Amino acid sequence: MKKLFIALLSFAASTSFAQNVGKITDPVDWINPLMGTQSKPSLSNGNTYPAIGLPWGMNMWTPQTGKNGDGWAYVYDADKIRGFKQTHQPSPWMNDYGAFSIMPVTGKLAFNDDDRASWFSHKAEISKPYYYSVYLADADVTTEITPTERAAQFRFTFPKTDSSFVVIDAQNKGSYIKIIPAERKIIGYTSKYARGPLPKNFRNYFVIYFNKDFKMAKTWDDKKLNDKDLELTVDHAGAVIGFATQKGEQVIAKVASSFISFEQADLNLKRELGNDGFDATKAKGRAIWNKTLSKIEVEGGTIDQMRTFYSCLYRTLFFPNKLYELDAQNQIVHYSPYNGQVLPGYMFAGTGFWDTFRALYPFLNLVYPSINKEMQQGLINDYKEGGWLPEWSSPGYANIMVGNNSASVVSDAYIKGMRGYDIETLWQALKHGANNEGPMEAVGRDGVKYYNELGYVPFDVKKNENAAKTLEYAYDDFTIYQLGRALGKPASEIDIYKKRAMNYKNLFDPASGLMRGKNQDGTFQSPFSPFKWGGAFTEGNSWHYTWSVFQDIDGLARLMGGHEKFVTKLDSVFSMPPVFDESAYGGVIHEIREMQIANMGQYAHGNQPIQHMIYLYNYGGAPYKTQYWVRETMNRMYKATPDGYCGDEDNGQTSAWYVFSAMGFYPVTPAVDQYVLGAPLFKKVTITLDNGKKVTINAPANSDNNRYVQSLQMNGKPYSKNWISHSGLQKGAVLNFNMGAMPNKTRGSNPVDFPYSLSTEK
């Protein structure tokens, strides 16, 4: 018995030790790129794929388990890999553009994506941000990939055979391929895209160089081999090259692409790969990831928490991705997805502001402002070349989602300190977008005449998602007002936006205490079910969108009867059963299912509209409830596993929620110089800012039980407010959280400590 007791003590000690990870040196090693890949259209656990690339790189690569054209390019439960695809895909729902793939084959020559597919196992798969390896069982080939921003190296380890092949698939919808055996080279382009319209000359040009002579070379057209021509322009073009290999022989392929020309693709390859071997490119990629991730160092979490944190941080660092390139004179140039010209300056693509205005862009403004400065310059070019700011770029204007949230993205960047670009042009772009309907529903403001005249978009004028549009336009107007003030614009120009920022009140229904669609004659829509998804709302119901008053939460609380009733209303979200009415969709969409199965009532963290709601307890004097529910959500809804998200990850937004929350604060109101406090997840977090200053967040007593803030010191002085300022953090700061197992119900309960609201602004 004594030996058993000692053994148990030893186990307990080792378990306890394992629960506290100290300072780490290589954060990239903690990332699981497969987090969120166990997904399907009916249920999203992230809807991610293992993105092999560099931060904000123009291209990423992924093993392709789905058929060509399938948005679900890689799913964890698949058995076969069909190719290795260069991708720019922001989500499966948006699908891809400019994609082509490479696949090794042995034995019988097979080239279409069904025939060439090979069985694989996760047991023989290595997935890292800068490196991917998998054993293709049917071909008896190990494929390795390591990327740069616009290029990559492949290393194929072949068996002994005289029938080793590499297949290039330029996909359908118009493609070109040419094999140049004397140079061991293949060039081609793909013009395929999923979301348009795009200019007729849209192409992704690629060049591939091999380190081995071709014994055989053929092109193919859809499902037919072409024995005559080594150059082919058809709907669906491809190439296959072959050679004899020895057991264990490694064949290298260097690949690069360009949206501009073959010459630019060659230039990208020579600049980014040069004479580097595969392992040198891999080492450089690893170093870039470690340097980028090390801007935030976390200590004192469990192994799972560390893995989840850095896996989420990895996801925040891809989108929007660079669409720009460096020409022969090292000048920054880009292909314009708006007018088809090659023009100077920055360009980015692949993000939906409806998702990312909430936390992803504020996160960049805090930790990676230099890249967002480039993105703001890219937005200027979007406006100049297309006439509008994009709300979803993929890579040009995509007609999906609602709102005019480019206003938030532009305003928050400037208010958080971005300078050195043409903000006046962006100011004109915001005013243009706010007062005009665009060329499609999702650009500019759909229903703007109703909104400006009535103060809301009516329910009965055939404008879809009208209540969601009204609430988002009102917040967007607030951000325009904020930017106008920061720029010193006259009251005659900006006061209209301050007035419109209060339009949210027009949809508040006193009978239910919730937001409700309103008809053109001023009556509320009827019948009304607060559990009805869609209709007046976007991918949510009234319980989700009622809180979309980012700019004036105190005003919303007063509409609900005061702070105490406001807190009770927040509690109701979690205490109600997860009932729903899906009739507007004619079926249960995956966002509904994810809410239903999460066991958090009506709280639907798997989609964006309600993600900030947990932090609103700070506006009602009950920040301890924020602390409880933030920790619950991090614990329940995130893990660095294939099923590790609770809905679509969406371009870094759902990950940015976790990263912010783990640090202990969240940007409830972008375009305001404040973050609303929660409670940190780790014992220590150190943020290294671009200006060289550090923000240190200490919570030494933090644990799973000690999730409540007892007191807070900022820079050595007691701090009672429920928010911290961005400008204060920029000076460097030390936050010392005293954590405990029981809530401190008095701290943060005084309205003088509540975060910003427009109606209480002094």
TrEMBL record:
One of its GO terms (biological process) is glycoprotein catabolic process. Its EC number is 3.2.1.-. GO terms for cellular component: cytosol. Residues 1-18 form the signal peptide. Residues 264-740 form the Glycosyl hydrolase family domain. Its cofactor is Ca(2+). GO terms for molecular function: carbohydrate binding; hydrolase activity, acting on glycosyl bonds; peptide-N4-(N-acetyl-beta-glucosaminyl)asparagine amidase activity. Residues 30-258 form the Glycosyl hydrolase family 92 N-terminal domain. InterPro entries: 6-hairpin_glycosidase_sf (IPR008928), GH-type_carb-bd (IPR014718), GH92_a_mannosidase_put (IPR005887), GH92_N (IPR041371), Glyco_hydro_92 (IPR012939), PNGase (IPR050883). Monomer. NCBIfam families: aman2_put. This is GH92 family glycosyl hydrolase. It comes from Pedobacter endophyticus.
